[in-house]
Amino acid sequence: MHTISKVWLFCLLLAMSTAASANLTIEITRGSDQALPIGVVPFEGADGMPEDVAQIIHDNLERSGFFDPLDRSSMFEQPSEADDVEYSTWRSLDVRYLVVGKAERTDSGYRLQYDLMDISGQTRMMSETVTASEDDLRGAAHYISDQIFEEITDIRGAFSTRIAYVTAQGVGDDTDYGLYVADADGRKSQQILTSDQPILSPAWSPDGEKLAYVSFENGQPEIYIQEVDSGNRARITSFEGINGAPVWSPNGHRLAMSLSKDGQPEIYVMEIGDRSLTRITDNNSIDTEPAWSPEGNRLLFTSDRSGGPQIYEHDLGSGETERMTFTGNYNARARFSPDGEDLFLIHRSDRGFQVARQNIESGRLVTLSDSTQDESPSVAPNGTMVIFATQQGNNGVLSAVSADGRSSFRLPAAQGDVRDPAWSPFLNE
Amino acid sequence: MQLKPLARSLAVVLSLAVIAGCSSTGGTQDGDSSGSQDGSGSGSGSTSSSGAGGSGQYGSGSSGADGSQQADSRIPDVKTIYFDYDRDTIKGEYESVVMAHARYLRSNPDAEVVLHGHTDERGTREYNMALGERRANAVERFLNIQGVSSSQMSVVSYGEERPAERGDSDRAYSQNRRVVFNY
């Protein structure tokens, strides 16, 4: 019950803001062979509810790649509480974990009671009651998914997070661009900006309340900061040339970016409070796509100072710069894993542009995706998945792959291009 | 990389010599790629009609400085030049196009042009933003060497954000790697 109230308040705000919707659907494209078998039994009393809570939990767990949920049609028993669970029944179905629960109507919405069972250990691992208003049922399902995920894997769940992304419809000069925010499962999308000029590079503030992005609405690229819920926005930079690739420092006070006001793109750090700039790089080549280390003391960036694009790391304390990537002749747009031990980046292999992970200590690089035109990798705050943009036919779609490359899913949109995804930080501290 | 500006000015000198000689063979090739829909850009009054014929608008025979006098009073029809993959070198076949814009801008000191740099969709977005700027900068430097005042020119890179053609064919890619002259 602890942190729930904040989550619900958040979900309530989300539900109140209605806007153009461009929901994304989920297609699992690769399941992990090491996924844990789990059963999520339909909740008793769920008939007539506006959302199928058990199905949302099932889908979340499956999408994570950590779980292989049992199909409902195989459940010839549907218990709703721990005491009714026949362990032998579920063991015969090769299920290791089982989620059972029930929903009850209350004056203000629903009360959801669920149990997580360990089938092989024949124990109840967790039991909780959650209340939610009718509009918050998806949020409640994501919250329950987070609890189950963490209880079993010891990794914090990231189902109650959001993604920002950019849409484009049309060709050439007749293209309409939209900036959207949606739940991590692609649902509850809301448009927060629309323009007939390009929008790109959305980046979340560490508190999850604001986005920085680049907009061409005045005929040149400029960096803006916008509050997601209120829509209030401010233009942050409008220098001559490129104003690009904004990313927030972990403490939220600074913005790293790429500016070409000096002739070629250089990395800068801006103090958001007084808008003062510190120049980080100084040379004749392209320096762009900065990313902060988790502690905020180092910056990754893409530079072609050695010829083609490679990843470099700048230590803000010592001022030293070190080349990080050596595999192949195109490595760009790197992001740290939340534990700071790996880089996720776009690597050009002989098959094309692919999402790859490089372990920093060993330097070993492995490609994770099997698509060939990948861009804009963004890491989930728990480090388990990377969402990125790729091509499906002639359309841009979002795709995600687990950090180990074992599982993946796609989020196609009904129409137009979707790209430039940014995974939010944890929203419920 | 540092040698490029030198190489470029050499190319300019050479191309000047060639143009002074005669030759507009490149013209026909440029013509057909330009007349198509992607000729003009966004923004201000894109006056480009259709530019069907293509060749001849820079004066065919012995052109040079004198023969182009009347042509210099209007904005050249061909407003887009194309680049090789991962290159910002102005290809020989498009130098005549850039020269025509240089003549127009020199004879019309009040005219201003925004050079829009574009890339194809391969690679990362912000890195492509930088590559698009590099292409537009290359054209700006070329024009500058031709005597066009810096105050008449500005550069905006769109990177891969505004493809002229969709799709992942080599044809679409080559149509998207471009610099567009916007007056």
Q: Give the oligomeric state of the chains in this entry, treating copies of one chain as homo and distinct chains as hetero.
A: heterodimer
Overall pLDDT score of chain A: 92
- Radius of gyration of chain A over all CA atoms, rounded: 22 Å
Proportion of beta-strand residues of chain A: 35-45%
The percentage helix of chain A is 10-25%
The end-to-end distance of chain A, rounded to whole angstroms, is: 14 Å
How would you describe this structure to a colleague?
The complex is a heterodimer of chains A (429) and B (183). Chain A contains four helices and 30 strands. Chain A is mainly beta and 429 residues long. In chain A, the strands form seven sheets. A five-stranded antiparallel β-sheet of chain A has the order 1-29-28-27-26, with no helix packed on it. A five-stranded mixed β-sheet of chain A has the order 3-2-4-5-6, with helices on one face. A four-stranded antiparallel β-sheet of chain A has the order 9-8-7-30, with no helix packed on it. Chain A is globular. Mean pLDDT of chain A is 92; it is low at 1-19. Chain B has 183 residues and is α+β, with helices and mostly antiparallel strands. In chain B, 42% of the residues lie in helices and 11% in strands. Chain B has a four-stranded mixed β-sheet with strand order 1-4-2-3. The longest helix of chain B has 21 residues, at 125-145. Chain B is elongated and about 40 Å long. Mean pLDDT of chain B is 73; it is low at 1-68. At the A-B interface, loops of A face α5 and β3 of B.
